[in-house]
Amino acid sequence: MLFKHPELLWALFLLLIPIFIHLVQLRRFKKTPFTNVKLLQEIISESRRSKSIKKWLLLMTRMLLITALVFAFSQPFFAENTALKKKERVFYIDNSFSMQAKLSNGTLLENAVQEILKHVPEDQEFSLFTNDGVFRKVFIKDIKNNLLSLSHSANQLSLEEVYLKANTLFKDRLETVNDLVIISDFQANMVSKRKDYPGNTQTHLIQITPDNNINVAIDTAYISNTSSENITLTGHLSSNGQIKSTPVSLFNEKQLIAKTAAIFGADNKASVTFSLPQNESINGLIEISDPVLQYDNELYFNINKKEKIKVLSIGDDNSNYLERIFSKDEFDYINSSIRTLNYSVLGAQNLIIVNELQDIPGALQSALITYKNNGGSLVFVPAFKTDFKEYNNFLSQVMGSSFTSLVSEHRIISNINFSHPLYRNVFDKEINNFQYPSVEQYYKLKSILPKILSYANQEPFLCGIDGNYLFTSPLSDEYSNITKSPLIVPTFYQIGVNSLKLPSIYEVLGQNTTIDIPIVLIKDNVLSVTNNQLQYIPRQQAFANKTTLFFDKDLSKAGIYSITNDKTPIQNISFNPSRKESQLNYIDLKNLTATTKNNAIASFFDQLEKENSIAELWKWFVILALAFILIEVLIQKYLK
Questions:
Q1: Counting C-beta atoms within 10 Å of the first and last residue's C-beta, which end of the chain has fewer, N or C?
Q2: pTM of model > 0.85
Q3: Planar angle of CA 424, 427, 431, nearest 5 degrees
Q4: What does pLDDT average to over the chain?
Q5: Phi-psi label, residue 218: left if phi above 0, alpha if psi -120 to 50, beta otherwise
Q6: Nearest 10 degrees: Cα torsion 359, 362, 367, 371
């Protein structure tokens, strides 16, 4: 039992007053002599005995009365250990796209907001954050309108990210009870390495799940085939439950141009194809109708007029393998000898290949260094009929690398770095057994560049990244058979494609995306990204032959955006949310550690109210005091 005013307990010393009165106010009987006192002695003895009982009863009643009154004014109560401690409460509301799923009274997100508005006391200060917003030290009336207008976000936080973000909102005081309340559907992809919250924070998990979790989604779309007249667009759909078919519509701008039905197989997957005209810009939308989640019912894409990537090969090699790889429909390929080289075109190239030059003139070295500093991509293929040390001055400046020795031994190229960005989405699976190409001579290399292709002894044949690519052996047939290997095509093709990072038919929101726009900006000009609802200036870097745009989590709304230069449209780019939330697979809260776990927000607040409730006892002590007064009156009146 605890007291609101324990200092009043000093008043219990008042109990000494009735005790003192009882001791000092003893009535003495006057003795009178009688000749026969037998009867009187019996009366006196009985009278003394009854008087003593009454006196002790009155003393006890008065002492209990004083005790009850003192306790009543001290206001005693019972409470849990945490009820009296200072509390700091942080709420996390998951507003990711999976919270679009339906309950009988609206979406999961709408239900969560209404329950918060209903149960959080108006006088309680708290902090609240979502996937894309933070409210620090607020009252519910301050953010009511913000919560009612809360929209869904493409950014989904993992549990570890939720914990880390919540940690920035707590003051981390030892005497304060920190309550973290996580309201989410707890999708399986939220699981992180950390499954409980460290420190003195009490974690409360509230899982709300939809009535129906069978969802149909448009997973992806891509150009699967091209011809001189048409483009074949393929779309993949999936469902996490049994479904036969669903209609799929294709729009260009707002005009319906095709409609088909997606037939689902036993694996709950389906594919659709559309034929589109070649050499025509398309601002497309693939659409289905599904009631569970809305965000994955649409997939935006656009097909721009394709910019050709400019590739220049400098060298006397007469082989035409590069010309076959850099085809005319995608690349503007030029092969030039050192004698006929036009230095004025170097800055306009997206990729320059220094192809087995015996010597690199000083003028060319200076031009290539300037080209690299301006963001150009460079491939260096060495020759053997030279003193390799002449290469090192140039290589150390442009690639931070140098050759150390010449090895005249047969080597097979057997190791492929499948995780290298150059080979991203190139191979369906890792290949361990194929016809290995080989070289007869190669240079040993000292370099910080990551390996892409390696010999059996782990020494590099090709290394590089981000526009710097260095071979350690010539590629001509005299020294190698690599040009006859299937590896040569994806390797050089990917180097060429990555030299000008043109947009895909769509990008994914929330991911770091880099694209190159083949335009040279006038001083102080910037490129903007706009649609009907917003204008956004992405982070960008201007080079001599292009402008690079960087997109991250700042852009959060799906759609087709126009890239403009001083209000003049250049090309379009499409963004769609990640489809990782479409499967509606949920975590079992039994596998997570938390202070409390609930399946309804209302039940959590009921539980919280019980834990923080205080049972006040002062009324009972007032009743006891009145009862003791009544008992004293009855004793005085009826006890003889």
A1: C
A2: no
A3: 125
A4: 86
A5: beta
A6: 60
Q: Rounded to an integer, what distance in angstroms lies between the CA atom of residue 17 and that of residue 40?
A: 35
CB 360 within 8 A of CB 391: yes
* pLDDT at 318 (0 to 100): 66
Please check the confidence at residue 195 and state whether its pLDDT lies above 60. Answer: no
Residue pLDDT, tens place only, 85-143: 678 889 999 999 999 998 888 899 999 999 999 999 898 899 999 998 999 999 999 99
C-alpha closest to that of 222 among 509, 504, 575, 579? 504
CA geometry: angle 601, 607, 612, nearest 5 deg: 125
Alpha-carbon gap, residue 364 to 105, rounded angstroms:
71
* Cβ atoms 461, 442 nearer than 8 A: yes
Cα distances from 223 to residues 35, 54, 273, 427, in angstroms, run 136, 105, 9, 17
Of 309, 313, 310, 401, nearest to 355 by C-alpha is 313
Cα separation values, 312 from 198, 335, 352, 483, Å: 57, 6, 5, 18
What are 300-346's pLDDT values in tens digits? 999 988 788 999 999 987 668 999 999 998 899 999 999 999 999 99
Q: Which residues contact 223 (CB under 8 A, 6 or more apart)?
A: 231, 232, 233, 234, 303, 505
Amino acid at 229: E
Judge whether residue 49 has pLDDT over 70: no
Q: Quote the CA–CA distance of 127 and 178 in Å, as a whole number.
A: 11
- Identity of residue 577: P
Could you tell me if 618 and 75 are in contact, meaning their C-beta atoms sit under 8 angstroms apart?
yes
Mean pLDDT of 452-480: 94
Q: Give the pLDDT confidence of 605-620 residue by residue, as tens digits.
A: 887 777 666 667 677 7
Q: Could you tell me the maximum CA-CA distance found in the chain, to the nearest angstrom?
A: 162
Q: What domains, with CATH codes, occur in the chain?
A: 2-80+617-638 (no CATH), 86-212+585-612 (3.40.50.410), 232-303 (2.60.40), 309-499 (3.40.50.880), 507-576 (2.60.40)
The tokens for 344 are 């004025």
pLDDT at 329: 84
At what angle are helices 601-612 and 108-119 packed, to 10 degrees?
20
Which of 154, 136, 156, 155 shows the shortest CA–CA distance to 146? 136
> In terms of C-beta density within 10 A (0-12 exposed, 13-18 middle, 19 or more buried), how is residue 202 classed?
middle
Residue 133: count of CB within 10 angstroms of its CB: 15
Residue with more model confidence, 432 or 35 = 432
CB-side neighbour CA atoms (13 Å) of 201: 24
Which residue's entry shows tokens 């070649």? 278
Whether pLDDT at 443 is above 70: yes
Q: For the chain, report the end-to-end CA distance as a whole number of angstroms.
A: 39
Average pLDDT over residues 575-597: 89
